[in-house]
Amino acid sequence: MIRLTWLQFRTQAFAALAAMAAFAVLLAATGPHLASLYAASGLSGCHVDSCQSLAGSFDAEVSTYTSLYVISVGIILLAPAIIGLFWGAPLIARELETGTSDLAWNQSVTRTRWLAVKLTVVGLTAMAVTEALSLMQGWWAAPLGRAVTDGAPQGPLSQDRFTQLVFATHGITPLGYAAFAFALGVTVGALIRRTIPAMAVTLALFLALQIAMPLWIRPHFASPDRTVIATAGGFEAGGATGPGGTTLTLVATSLPGQPGAWILSSGPVNAAGQPVSTTPAACDAPSIASSPDFYGCLTSHGIREAISYQPASRYWPFQWAETGLYLALALALAGYCFRRLNRRRS
Amino acid sequence: MTAAIETRGLSKQYRRTWALRDCTLAIPQGHVVGLVGPNGAGKTTLLRLATGGLMATRGTISVLGEPPAAGPAQLARVGFVAQDTPAYARMRVADHLRLGAWLNPGWDDELARRRIAQVGLDPRQRAGSLSGGQRAQLALTLALAKRPELLLLDEPVASLDPLARREFLRSLMEAVAEHSTSVVLSSHLVTDLERVCDYLIVLVASQVRVAGEVSELLATHYRLAGPRRDPGTLPAGQDVIEESHTDKQSTLLIRTGEPIHDPAWTVTPVSMEELVLAYMNPANDIPARRPQLGVAS
Lengths: 346, 297
Prior knowledge:
Strand content of chain B: 25-35%
Mean pLDDT of chain A: 89
Strand order of the largest sheet of chain A: 1-7-6
Helix content of chain B: 25-40%
CATH class of the largest domain in chain B: Alpha Beta
Shape of chain A: elongated
Oligomer: heterodimer
Radius of gyration of chain B: 21 Å
Strand content of chain A: 5-15%
Number of domains of chain A: 2
Number of domains of chain B: 2
Strand order of the largest sheet of chain B: 5-6-7-3-8-9
């Protein structure tokens, strides 16, 4: 059965291998240059005062790699979807569609064994391919990650590990995505029984979950820590003048003393801890609003910034939680496929 | 000897319609069974229930004494060729034989190669470029080389031209005779099966109308012609299958196990085609008979 699976799967496997090779060549050709730029930047072991400016010039030097970075991240994000579409959805649907299921399931091999071998071989390959892409890109982008740790400002190339694009393309999450997308494709194919519609539905469902995950699910893996800090630099302030005075918004982009923390929400509160939505009139004067005194003025009025966040130390627990969730979903879908195939409605 | 296929009250319902209803049959082994009925009568459903491809809604079925597709061993004993004789379009003929060898412990590679050569298939050719007849031969080869005890073929010749039809059935019969395999093959045309089958099942509107050995059926069915007469006045044991009347004459097709003594009748034997057509005609009200559970031979 393994030999048959290989016979049917080898074309796709070779295609994946070719894509991985192209990806590797692209990264291997540019990776050393990126690393040398980092080594020459002096960021490693920089003093706190100089780090910011060194990081800024490093960011400028590596900006030519922005498109490659975005493309490589995009490929890792899309790989599970492509696997779900082209490996998962046709696995059962094409057999049913072309009638070859009558051939496959009337040999001296039970449907359970047929499916078990197919799911194992193709599913493990899917996971290996996606994780390999992620590891290659992780090696390539390592200097960028170190620059962030050294204190580089957030930019398209330098982002915290908790940022959606980084979180979803590094660590072990690609394993979970690949397994889930593949199992989802197989299941949808078994239900719809036609390849093309099954591919469309698989894509829609997978994208929906990938969008919902960072927005509504991942933030709740652990209840966020909360803190209230003095208003100072490092906020993105905004306001709009309306009939009730000037509104006040203050968005924290980083948390002092907590590098790499994932900030879920932030906003100004008064001394009693209640959210504040308008700028005190005294701080509203144009001369103050655009000066560093603005924050001093807010502080003198008892306004501080409340932040809820996930500390950087939760990166790996979150990686495990998310990967575990996707793997559990994949196993549940696979279990359903076994039941469905053995209920024999075909 | 266990029956090739034995069913009791076997029924299959799709949503609201019954594809097969209360089918009780005992098909002995060692026969070439023709399963005849109009399109949509439930032939495919019955065959798929026998392969384990479908689960019955009600009733039971056992194939060679075991539930269908009970495990690898049971799967190995039954060969199945589906109606559209499927093959993997992008795989070569030789790959299909390798597939068969990998997945079937009882695979007869010598037989497979010999048949492929006999029917003139190029092992290097991709299945997608085969003609309908060639693909049917490939599917049959796969099923035969598995060396099953029971071979099920669903409308195997429906898509073939008359010449390929004859060639296919001839090669099937050769192979079957060689290994004394039991065969069930379905068709909506009795003429396809007339020459090959020695056991007949007529299935109409999801119900079995008649089942039995061809020789026994032919020996117990007669066409009677004579002066007009009410069929109700026939002696017990003479079941009317089909009747037609003019003002003066009656023509009946009857089933009886006893000799016909009434001198008023002109008695003629019936051909298999006449018999099948009479049973297939939905206008005919077939008298209920006790299901023949006793396995002959």
